[in-house]
Specification:
The complex is a heterotrimer of chains A (847), B (230) and C (378).
Chain A (H helix, E strand, L loop, with lengths): L1 H13 L2 H40 L4 E4 L5 E2 H10 L5 E10 L7 E7 L17 H10 L3 E5 H7 L6 E6 L2 E11 L4 H6 L3 E5 H8 L4 E2 L1 E4 L6 H11 L5 E4 H11 L1 H32 L1 H9 L4 H45 L12 H28 L8 H32 L4 H51 L1 H39 L4 E4 L9 H14 L3 E14 L2 E9 L2 H4 L12 H7 L2 E5 H7 L6 E6 L2 E11 L9 E4 H7 L7 E6 L5 H11 L5 E4 H15 L1 H28 L1 H9 L4 H43 L9 H28 L2 H6 L2
Parallel strand pairs in A: 4-8, 5-7, 14-18, 15-17
Antiparallel strand pairs in A: 1-10, 1-11, 2-9, 3-4, 3-10, 5-8, 6-7, 12-19, 12-20, 13-14, 13-19, 15-18, 16-17
Chain B lengths: L7 E12 L2 E13 L4 E5 L6 H9 L6 E6 L2 E2 L5 H11 E4 L11 H12 L4 H13 L15 H13 L5 E5 L7 H18 L2 E5 L11 E6 L2 E5 L2
Parallel strand pairs in B: 3-8, 3-9, 6-7, 7-8
Antiparallel strand pairs in B: 1-2, 1-4, 4-5, 9-10
Chain C lengths: L1 H21 L14 H5 L28 E11 L5 E12 L15 E11 L4 E10 L5 E3 L5 E4 L2 E5 L7 E7 L2 E9 L4 E2 L5 E3 L7 E18 L2 E18 L5 E11 L4 E9 L9 E5 L6 E3 L5 E9 L6 E10 L4 E7 L5 E3 L3 E13 L2 E11 L3
Antiparallel strand pairs in C: 1-2, 1-13, 2-3, 3-4, 5-6, 6-7, 7-8, 8-9, 9-12, 10-12, 11-12, 12-13, 14-15, 14-23, 15-16, 16-17, 18-19, 19-20, 20-22, 21-22, 22-23
The chains are: A alpha+beta (847), B alpha/beta (230), C mainly beta (378).
């Protein structure tokens, strides 16, 4: 019985391949985008973790200092004087390969004999001990992963040439690491292991270590930790690697949540498509279902039939979605990693890692979303009375009745959206939830709004074009249960697009304005290179003196960007030597106090960026305890200034204060202020003459351009995803509108029979779909504005701590409207074309 | 009687359908002449080709070969566009299942063929109102088709077929979905209206009840027409 | 519904397949054992060779001899807590030169002297044997041996003359919950082994070492095991040896005995085992009588019979585990038995070295004693 029942259903489905394809597309694309984002994000994090684990082995903690690293004497002190075991000193750097400067190798200097217990991934060479001995015994030797070697065309005995600040260095490969697994191989790609002595020699960082890896036994961690805490200098901290990964994860949390939201947006749109299709399939089969009920098929059996169909669709769609998601994830990995790399931390390798958890998540989402979307049509099917097959008109009035409760639900959701958005304090997730609630709420209002718009249009167009003019709006209104869904889906996509566009545009304008304010100097010299290098501070000071002496130069400001430690976590710090002009580059959140700069120079004070204040919940007047070599030192916060250069925030202090507690690491940048009225080009060429070749000299204009470039790159992934979501919506709308038109073939046949030309028919169809697009676009404009508002003032503020100025660019609104209309028009073209070519007699025969 | 005097002249009409790959012959070298104002009844079993003949006459389907001339215009040589315009001006269709536009009111359904010819104002509305009045539907002007009974819908369909004063009315089983009594009412209305305006009517049916009003009765059998004397 | 179930099972299988393809495989890389021996027997070009007797100069010779390839400072001892609980300990510092010369560099880490240290405690009553090892180069003074006064160390393990001379000497080592802190004083003067400290190990010239010992060092201090602290006293033995090449191609390993007898006599005997099962004629020993100078023993003077064997559950190797030593010339007959069978050091370099008890007769008098036995190449 069930088999025959299913066959009846299946035969029906197979005769509507368009609908089938559409539903599958909805699930597939939705799942694909969600899983792709999930995979790409997770892979970026995981790869970081795996590389660290492969390099550090079983290390549980890390002894790390500020950016200058550690004095290697500390290692001796821990080992010899305090007998601390399970320590592994590390000195690492990134160096480009001479043959291909695009490839940067992570050169890790280790002590091969320090500790066997770490069981690091590199200790898996053909003959670990032999290689270890050669690393120590022979100068400029290294081991690299087999894959890396193959990729570079090198084998044991060959030389790897790396470019350093002081010229090219040759490293002889003495062993290839044969990783035990593909993951380890991936993790070891572009990693070079050498002895600390070799790395010190090629970098010139004599006497320094990057950090010391530690294994603290789980049995009694506190004893060792307490001992270490006693021994370690104030500016050196012991960080648990788990905590470090956790904080990495937290760091990228906002970014992750925002990206995931984009994925969910795609799934939401996909759900509309599934709903649309399932509703269509149920409505189309009202006769069949009525007949089945008549011959004694129970409601349960009908439900099971529909659920079975939905589940099969969901399963196939989900599988396809997972497959597509893996491909898409591979594509997205690059931009996602690039953003993580720019904004958060260095990611050394690119490879997709897939966990069963993620696949499971995708399966749940795909099937869950389908089941959710199938509930309304299922209820619809069960409302069919067995006595007679309902006519469409009764159904439509049914759904009109339904639309009152939908209207109510919509209003409820919007209210909830606002409430959650404004009351949820700092949660990013709730902020995004509010966006979703608003979008969904307005989507529910869309059918009612559409009806209202259609009756207005009808009055107008009826007056202008008579009955022909009335037809398109009537057609939209008559099948509101179908058209409404398509319009709502389109509206969501367009509103999201408008909202994101406005947000990004506002952000761009804000950043541009900030850059214009903050770039006070005429020219900037940026001093690259490692801060640990010897004599750097001295050389930098000499450089500054040379610049300041030039006749064309009026004033010189400097900055050192580095890291210090607070609460055992690294904090970015900028140490400024400010001129009167450069002080104008700071824009403070609160009213400016003239005494601020004096205190800034003379006392233990800092000013903090807005994201810092936001994430650390501090305000002017609070103090921050920073770990210095002399112990903890409180710094008072004088003010909070706007800064969009990073989302984790930073502290700024005067160079004078900095040097009281931390070693001089030279400068990161020197700002050059020309004498009033001097020609900047002359100044620039004079500077170029005097400065070493390697130094980077840029005008504030060039820096502005470069910064905006970085901004655009950072938003690349967001934009890509937004277009992906919009694309899915358009494909969906396209499909459902086409289905709608094909379903109407017979009605269109009558119009042809009574004398409507193919051209007129095309016009009619396009007018109808165009109207739908227009409606979607018109609703999307206010909704998009609202979304932008929530994104700017709630989601992004919470995510990154940045205040943005709402910049209303009307182009974005018009773009959104046009997008909606064009997408809908496009959807009308194919059916119109087909109808125009179909003989009316055939059309009349159509079901 | 020369062919030119005939209102409709069908000559050597052949039509095949392809059904699951196998060609099915509907007409083979079919010929027919119809005089202006004649009321012709087409008989034939289901699937014999009654609807096809009407579709060919209305220009919504094309023959494989042969000529159809209506009022001196060779329909079969017209382009799709011109055929549509011809249909728009000169043909009225009545279908078995009414085929009203569900999204338009009764009045609008009637006005649609008129507006396709040219925008009409008050005159059109008056004409439609009058026609509907004749059909006893004057209280249903602003009703949507799905609120009407089958008989009412078919009456609206008849009105729609006549509103633009076509030369030829093609009715395909107009009573097929109606009960006997309603069918007779509809039939007599159709007869009355067509006769009044002197239009030509070709009516396909399998119901012998309607044969009484026919001027001529033709039966489609074995792909050709056989005149039946009643 | 069955079909749906089947479908989901298929989906699940597909998912698992995808996962397996991408999933990590647990890896377990580690140093390969025994690989340390290879660099140590490699080309000895450039190293100083031990070819003939030489005068010793102290304290310089207590320090490192970096031009020789390898060197060790070997401390073993048998100790007793007041309650009679017995312990053995070993603390050894090895030096290996990775190359005969050094490279000039500003980096302190550019260093070719590698130290290795082994530390064991035998808890006889607890029937436990604890062992640990350390490696370090001498860079940053992480490890080393001083030439100006007696000090040898690797990280926090050290042996150091606390008054500027060699004695009293303090030994300190700690690993996890095992620690020793001992004070050593010489009961007998330094003994030059072999021919005035020149100890031949095979026919080949250069296969020899410079070798001296302190054979009886009174020891007092503490041993702690798992947080329990035991005051201990007893005797230790110190061996100092350096060479560039010791074993020859046909030698498999050695059995080495250092025994301290109750009549104030000490005996050092080693037997170099050949791969063909024979004994190398350069095997030798020294007997240090209670009140006279050391007497050299040749291979033909000493007869060693293996009375028992023990197979290690860790390495599955079989070691001899009880011996009868007969030195007719000295009227000495001893039976040596390990205090614990399992005293195998499963470290980067695997060997057996353990505390042993001795019973027997010397010149007609019954004697007892303790000592250490070292078994390599099994």
């Amino acid at each position: 019985m069930n088999t025959i029942l299913n066959r009846a259903g299946r035969n029906f489905l197979l005769r509507h391949p368009w609908q089938l394809a559409l539903a599958l597309l909805g699930i597939t694309l939705g799942v694909a985008v969600v899983i792709a984002i999930d995979l790409a994000l997770d892979s970026a994090l995981q790869s970081f973790k795996q590389v660290e684990q492969t390099v550090s082995g079983k290390a549980t903690h890390r002894i790390a200092g500020g950016e200058g690293g550690l004095d290697e004497a500390l290692y001796r002190k821990l080992r010899v004087e305090h007998g601390i075991r399970n320590l592994a000193p590390v000195l690492q750097t990134y160096l480009p390969i001479q043959q291909n400067p695009k490839i940067k190798l992570r050169v890790i200097g280790i002590d091969p004999f320090a500790e066997n217990a770490f069981r690091s991934g590199w200790q898996s060479g053909q003959d670990g001990a032999q290689a270890a001995i050669r690393l120590v015994a022979e100068a400029n030797t290294a081991i690299i992963g087999r894959q890396t070697a193959e990729a570079l065309g090198l084998s044991i005995g060959d030389e790897l040439i790396v470019a350093t600040g002081t010229g090219d260095r040759r490293l002889r490969i003495v062993d290839l690491i044969a990783p035990a697994s593909a993951v380890a191989a991936e993790a070891l790609s572009n990693i070079v292991i050498a002895d600390i002595s070799t790395v010190q020699e090629i970098t010139g960082w004599f006497g320094r270590l990057s950090h010391i890896d530690v294994i603290i036994p789980e049995t009694d961690p506190h004893k060792v930790q307490a001992r270490l805490a006693d021994i370690l200098p104030g500016d050196v901290s012991l960080v648990s690697i788990a905590t470090q990964f956790e904080s990495m994860q937290q760091m990228t949390e906002a970014f992750s949540i925002n990206l995931s939201a984009m994925g969910l947006l795609s799934l939401l749109v996909g759900m509309f498509l599934i709903y649309n299709t399932m509703t269509f399939l149920v409505l189309q089969r009202r006769g069949l279902i009525g007949n089945l009920r008549l011959i004694g098929v129970t409601r349960r059996q009908i439900s099971r039939m529909i659920l079975t169909e939905a589940l099969i669709l969901a399963a196939i769609g989900t599988m396809l979605g997972i497959g597509l998601g893996l491909l898409l994830g591979q594509v997205m990995l690059q931009p996602v990693t690039a953003t993580v790399d720019t904004l958060y931390f260095r990611v050394d390798r690119l490879s997709l890692s897939v966990s069963p958890l993620q696949i499971g998540k995708a399966v749940l989402l795909g099937i869950g979303a389908t089941l959710l979307a199938v509930i309304p049509p299922l209820r619809e099917a069960n409302r069919f009375s067995p006595k007679h097959a309902l006519t469409r008109s009764q159904l439509e009035s049914g759904s009109r009745r339904l639309s009152r409760s939908i209207l109510l639900l919509g209003i409820l959701l919007i209210a909830a959206g606002f409430a959650i958005g404004f009351l949820s304090e700092t949660s990013i997730k709730l902020g995004l939830a509010s966006v979703f609630l608003l979008l969904f709420g307005f989507a529910l209002l869309t059918p009612a709004t559409t009806l209202a718009v259609m009756s207005c249009v009808e009055t107008l167009s009826g007056r202008l074009f008579g009955i022909l003019g009335k037809l398109p709006p009537r057609m939209v209104g008559a099948e509101i249960s179908r058209t409404g869904v398509a319009i709502a889906a389109l509206m969501i996509a367009v509103a999201a697009t408008i909202g994101m566009n406005l947000m990004i545009d506002s952000f761009r304008v804000t950043v541009a304005q900030w850059l214009n304010t903050t770039l006070q100097a005429d020219l900037y010299v940026s001093i690259a290179g490692d801060k640990t290098a010897r004599d750097k501070a001295v050389k930098d000071r000499q450089l500054k003196a040379i610049i300041a002496e030039l006749a064309e130069v009026d004033q010189v400001s400097t900055v050192l960007h580095t890291q210090v430690v607070a609460d055992d976590m690294p904090v970015k710090v900028s140490a400024f030597e400010l001129t009167e002009a450069s002080k104008n580059g700071f824009v403070f959140k609160q009213a400016f106090d003239t005494g601020l700069w004096r205190a800034f120079e003379e006392q233990e004070t800092v000013i903090v960026t807005e994201p810092y204040a936001y994430h650390n919940k501090v305000k002017a007047g609070d103090t921050i305890a920073l770990q210095t070599a002399k112990g903890l030192q409180d710094f008072k916060i004088l003010g909070i200034y706007y800064d969009y250069s990073g989302d984790r925030g930073r502290l700024a202090m005067s160079r004078t204060q900095y040097l009281r507690y931390w070693p001089d690491l030279g400068y990161t940048g020197i700002g050059v202020y020309g004498v009033a009225g001097s020609d900047l080009n002359v100044l620039e060429s004079r500077l170029r003459d005097r400065l070493p070749q390697a130094l980077d000299l840029k005008s504030s204009r060039a820096i502005f351009d470069a910064s905006m470039q970085v901004f655009n790159e950072t938003f690349l992934i967001t934009e890509t995803l937004r277009w992906l979501a919009a694309g899915i919506a358009f494909v969906g709308v396209f499909g459902s509108l086409m289905a709608l038109q094909f379903e109407r073939t017979r009605q269109l046949g009558i119009l042809r029979a009574i004398g409507m030309t193919p051209g007129q028919l095309t016009g009619l169809i396009c007018a109808e779909t165009g109207l739908m697009g227009l409606t979607a676009g018109l609703i999307a404009i206010p909704v998009g504005l609202l979304v932008a508002y929530v994104l700017i003032y709630i989601v992004y503020l919470r995510s990154f701590g940045w205040t943005m100025t709402f910049h209303l660019n009307p182009t974005m609104l018009i773009q959104g409207l046009l997008l909606a209309v064009f997408a809908a028009l496009l959807a009308g073209i194919l059916p119109a074309y087909r109808m125009a070519r179909t003989r009316p007699a055939e059309a009349l025969r159509a079901e | 009687m020369t062919p030119a005097n005939n209102f409709i002249e069908i000559d050597g009409l052949t039509k095949n359908y392809r059904e699951t790959g196998r060609p099915v012959t509907i007409f083979d070298n079919l010929s027919l002449s119809v005089k202006r104002g004649e009321l012709l009844v087409l008989l034939g079993r289901s699937g014999s080709g009654k609807s096809t003949l009407l579709n060919l006459l209305g220009g919504i389907d094309r023959p494989d070969s042969g000529r159809i001339v209506i009022d001196g215009i060779e329909l079969t040589s017209l382009s799709e566009h011109r055929r549509t315009l011809f249909r728009r001006h000169h043909i009225g269709f009545v279908f078995q299942s009414y085929q009203l536009i569900p999204t338009l009111t009764v009045m609008d359904n009637l006005l649609l063929p008129l507006e396709l010819i040219q925008p009409t104002g008050k005159a059109g509305r008056n004409k439609a109102a009058e026609l509907l009045n004749n059909l006893d539907l004057s209280d249903r002007l602003d009703t949507y088709p799905d609120r009407l009974s089958g008989g009412e819908q078919q009456r609206v369909a008849i009105a729609r077929a006549l509103i633009h004063d076509p030369l030829l009315v093609l009715a395909d089983e107009p009573t097929g979905n109606l009960d006997l009594q309603t069918g007779q009412q509809v039939m007599s209305l159709l007869d009355k209206l067509v006769r009044q305006s002197g239009k030509t009517l070709i009516l396909a049916t399998h119901s012998r009840e309607v044969m009484g009003i026919a001027d001529r009765i033709l039966t489609i059998r074995d792909h050709s027409l056989i005149e039946t004397d009643d | 519904m069955k079909k749906i179930l089947l479908f989901f099972v298929l989906c699940l299988i597909a998912i698992m397949a995808v996962w397996l393809y991408f999933s990590p495989v647990d890896e377990d890389p580690a140093f390969q054992e025994s690989s340390f021996s290879s660099p140590l027997t490699a080309d000895s070009e450039g190293f100083a060779k031990v070819l003939e007797p030489r005068p010793f100069l102290f304290p310089e010779d207590h320090g490192a001899h970096n031009y020789y390839r390898s060197e060790w400072w070997y401390f073993t001892g048998n100790l007793e807590a007041p309650n009679g609980r017995r312990f053995g300990y070993q603390l050894t510092f090895f030096r290996f030169a990775l190359a005969s010369d050094s490279i000039e560099s500003e980096s302190a880490w550019r260093d070719r002297q590698l130290y290795m240290a082994h530390f064991t405690v035998t808890d006889v009553e607890g029937r436990r044997f604890h062992s640990a090892e350390r490696f370090s180069r001498t860079a940053l003074d992480l490890a080393g041996a001083r030439n100006d006064r007696f000090q040898v160390w690797l990280h926090d393990w050290s042996a150091e003359g606390i008054n500027g001379g060699i004695f009293p000497m303090r030994l300190k080592a700690e690993h996890r919950d095992i620690a020793i802190d001992l004070l050593l004083n010489a009961q007998k003067p330094l003994v030059l082994q072999g021919d005035r400290g020149f100890s031949r190990k095979s026919d080949q010239p250069g296969n020899a070492s410079y070798y001296y010992s302190y054979t009886r060092l009174s020891t007092a201090g503490s041993i702690s095991i798992d947080g329990q602290n035991f005051p201990v006293t007893g005797n230790s033995w110190m061996d100092r040896e350096w060479s560039t090449s010791a074993l020859s191609e046909d030698q498999a390993g050695w059995d080495w005995f250092s025994l301290q007898l109750s009549d104030d006599t000490e005996l050092m005997v080693y037997q170099l085992r050949l791969k063909d099962g024979g004994i190398d004629p350069h095997s030798s020993g020294t007997l240090i009588p209670a009140r006279s100078g050391p007497e050299a023993l040749q291979v033909e003077d000493v007869k060693i019979e293996v009375l028992d064997e023990w197979t290690s559950p860790h390495s599955k190797r079989t070691y001899p585990s009880r011996w009868r030593l007969t030195i007719p010339k000295q009227q000495l007959q001893l039976e040596v038995e390990p205090l614990l069978n399992d005293q195998e050091l499963n470290l980067a370099f695997r060997y057996w070295e353990g505390a042993a008890s001795v019973t027997g007769t010397h010149r007609g008098q019954p004697v007892t004693g303790f000592g250490y036995v070292e078994l390599t190449g099994y």
